[in-house]
Design goal:
With 286 residues, the chain is an alpha/beta fold. The protein has twelve helices and seven strands. It folds into two domains: 183 residues, Rossmann fold (3-Layer(aba) Sandwich); 88 residues, N-(1-d-carboxylethyl)-l-norvaline Dehydrogenase, domain 2 (Orthogonal Bundle), CATH 1.10.1040.10. Strands 3-4-5-6-7 form a five-stranded mixed β-sheet, sandwiched between helices. It has a two-stranded parallel ribbon with strand order 1-2. Helix 7 links the parallel strand 6 and strand 7. 36% of the residues are buried. The structure holds 3-hydroxybutanoyl-coenzyme A. This is 3-hydroxybutyryl-CoA dehydrogenase. Belongs to the 3-hydroxyacyl-CoA dehydrogenase family. Keywords: Oxidoreductase.
Amino acid sequence: MGLGIAFVSAVHAKVPVLLHDKSAAQIKSGLSLMDKLLAKDVSKGKITQEAAKEARDRVAVVDDMKKFRDADMVVEAVSENLALKQGIFRSLSADLSPKTILATNTSSISITKIAASTIPEGKTASDPEGQASTSRVVGLHFFNPVPVMKLVELIAAVQTSKETLERARAFAIACGKEVSSSQDVPGFVANALLMPFLNEAIMCLEKGVATREDIDKTFKLGMNHPMGPLQLADFIGLDTCLAIQQTLYTGTGDSKYRPSVLLERMVDAQWLGKKSGKGFYDYPSE
Ligand code: 3HC
């Protein structure tokens, strides 16, 4: 998703983009996907060769997040893990200009908790330093595949300032997206509604109510969904689905969010969906 966000930033918002990932292999495959997407858009006449080159030239790779120092905005898109995100936001807040907006692409985790992790050591949330660091944190939730999906969910933490919120909204619009706003509740609007649906589909399969093909066909042909729920879960990543469902379940205490045992076992087996080559369906490598 990080690469997708970089793509729409460079192509639509036309802003310089610095990319960072701890994995050099991820950077390599991300950039090669970007080259493919740009070439496809040129061949379809969506952009000119020159515009594609300009967009590609706007993207640079950095080996250290400190190099984001003077950026207007950072958009974090690591996996759904609160401690990991908090560690990153703590460092970003300490190292970057106080004017840099710190946005997270989290699918479900409390933006308020992430913001609280930026309070400088020895300061409190009500100190001017604590207020300044937390007020620039915001949720910007993109959808996969980012270049195609039209929506961004905008989520204010309880600490987010109006200025941060409006700058984040303007950035999403510049990226060619429509914005919907959600309160900072587990899963926000999108995943609080989507995940119980996907989980019910997995439970249907678990109980033998129907085959995977018939469950997916029901929604593709009966409701005009582009993908059936099992295919969509594979596409999102079963580990990501499980992490979001666990956040929903623990964050609300509501049993309707309890992840299915089948989903847990598939993640235990490292059957993570499309990205691992195996999920509810098999994905032979191209
Ligand atoms: N990256 C960029 N572009 C992609 C892409 C990708 N990974 N996959 C497909 N596309 C583009 C294609 O290049 C094509 O572009 P074009 O119109 O310019 O040629 C267009 O999408 C359509 O692709 P295809 O014709 O190959 O395939 P489909 O028509 O089957 O569409 C799909 C593929 C867009 C993925 C469609 O199946 C779909 O919309 N699926 C549902 C996706 C969805 O629900 N996403 C949200 C997931 S939830 C989420 O992200 C939130 C998170 O928090 C969990």
